[in-house]
Amino acid sequence: MLCYVYKGSKREGVYIYLATQDTSNLPETLLSSMGALTLALQFELTADKKLHKEDVAKVIENIQGQGYHVQIPDSAESLLDRHKAKTSKPG
After folding, report:
1. Residues 4, 9, 10, 12: what is their CA dihedral angle, to the nearest 10 degrees?
2. How far apart are CA 67 and CA 54, in angstroms?
3. Listing from the earlier edge strand, what are the strands of the sheet with 69-71?
């Protein structure tokens, strides 16, 4: 599948992967959090393709299932995990 990767003007290091250039079907909350979208990359996405920071199977699954995949920087994921660990209480 042809894959289009967009970056937003508001969130550094966050990318949205789509199978089309049409961004109008993205959730409004995602669009508003990203700011103005700019096409950053276009490539052929296949199951044997190696992606730098993402699991290709997960990207394909998300694009086929929900219409898009969001790549979040490691630092943001780590901060979220730490926050969840602090706020969740055992038992």
Report:
1. 70
2. 16
3. 37-44, 2-8, 15-18, 69-71
Token pair 């700019």 is found at 38
Which residues are within 8 A (CB) of 49 and not within 5 positions of it... i.e. 6 or more apart? 43, 56
Q: How far is Cα 69 from Cα 81, in angstroms, rounded to an integer?
A: 19
Partners of residue 37 on adjacent β-strands: 8
| 34-65 b/e (C-beta count within 10 Å ≥ 16 → b) | beebeeeeeeebeeeeeeeebeeeebbebbee
Q: Where are the domains of the chain?
A: 2-87
Q: What is the pLDDT of residues 32-80, one digit of tens each?
A: 999 999 999 999 999 999 988 899 999 999 999 999 999 998 765 555 5
Residue 12 in tokens: 């550094």
Q: What top-level class would CATH report for the domain 2-87? A: alpha beta
